Amino acid sequence: MTTGRIIWAVISAPFALVDLTLKLIFPGDSGWSLRRYEIELLQVVMGSLDDENQAILARQLNKLFFVERLHDGRVVRIHFKWKRGSIDRMKLPKEYNLAKLKLKTEGGKLGVSIGTYDGLIFSFHYTKPPKPFLSQGFEIVEAEYGGPANDTVTRAIDRLEHGKQR
């Protein structure tokens, strides 16, 4: 084994342990990065933001975060791994809906809401499991940008698990 490989093994071991621990806590399809289509959706949404908030969102996406996927990816939460005060926040209301989009894909139609909480990119809520729909690309057929969040992660999970809202 070369010195470089030994150094890499020593450096990467703690990250592998953290990754394993998080995957045990958040089972399923969770991980350390957004999917290609989620990045594409955010790029579209960034165009609706003013220059300052665009720059802040870009900086947030360059930070280390963990992506928790629930209910076949229908609810996606982003957990930043740094102290909350060390991340720039967008100048938006506390709970804010960046966009509500209706998408046309080869597999059919799909809706998605992209939300922030306290100025941080926070969640994606899909109307159906997104992976089979969005892996082949999409076209936005309807878009509503900005506004107060009318759905929370708690409500989305409750609706998916129990078929109702509180």
Q: How do the strands line up in the largest sheet?
A: 1-2-5-4-3-6
Helix content: 25-40%
Q: Strand share of the residues?
A: 25-35%
Whole-number total of structural domains: 2
Report the major sheet.
Answer: 6 strands, antiparallel
Number of strands: 6
**Which secondary-structure class do the elements indicate?**
alpha+beta
Run of helices and strands? HHHEEEEEHEH
Low-confidence stretches: none
Mean pLDDT reading: 78
- Give the end-to-end Cα distance, rounded to a whole number of Å: 57 Å
Number of helices, counting only DSSP H or I runs of 4 residues or more: 5
- Principal-axes geometry comes out as globular
Notes on the protein architecture:
The chain is an alpha+beta fold and 166 residues long. The chain folds into two domains: 1-29; 31-162, no CATH class. The chain contains five helices and six strands. The chain has helices spanning 3-25, 36-46, 51-61, 131-134, 153-162; strands spanning 65-70, 75-80, 95-105, 108-117, 120-126, 139-145. Strands 1-2-5-4-3-6 form a six-stranded antiparallel β-sheet, sandwiched between helices. A hairpin with a 2-residue loop joins strand 3 and strand 4. The longest helix has 23 residues, at 3-25. The N and C termini lie far apart (57 Å). The model has no long low-confidence stretch (mean pLDDT 78).
